[in-house]
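Assess this one:

_____
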Amino acid sequence: ELGRSARNSANIKNRQPLLKMLISVDTLPEYYGNIIKEELNVKEVELGAEMSEYVNFDIKPNLPVLGKTYGKYIPKIKAEIAKINPLDLANKVKSGEGYVIMLDEDLELELNSENVLITMDGKEGYSFAGKGTIGVVLETTITEELRKEGILREVLSKVQTTRKDSGFEVMDNINIYVSGDEDVLSVIKANEEQIKNDTLALKVNYKENENAQEVSINGQKISMFIEKA
């Protein structure tokens, strides 16, 4: 859920592979890490990550709320907030649990969603999402290798969708015709054997077909036609 939220915040579709997902907790079994990799299309999962390395936390007292009663303690409140793990404080405040700090020997204050202002954003190249005691970060830098893999996955999806829309049986062999954007075609050529294997294609033809339809592959246009072999 959090990984998908982080992807949506960065506007990166799930078929685009990403290098790494970092998770604040370190108690997930390896089995779940493998599920996360497959479901969220990431190459690595790192547990026990320190969120402050990847997230900008801005946590400060809500002055209009605290000013009247705790005006003279505002510097102390800011100093106490600075001592607390920002993810821990943010999660407790957002969950409604609150966080108690001492302003004097006999004066305490519970920090909560009314008297504390919190914003959390991933640093450059990262997207953050958090809930309860868990924070996750996706590394959003897309290398050339990842970009090409994203194109390949999009092409495979378009072929499989076209197969289904054409009413082909699951085990029908097909021939594929593609033309258009050279960048996309270069990825198809480099991965032709995988495409043929995954889609049961006998041949990929790099030429126009009069029945072809224009499809968008990550914003790049190609013409594609699929026929039963």
In short: The mean pLDDT is 93.
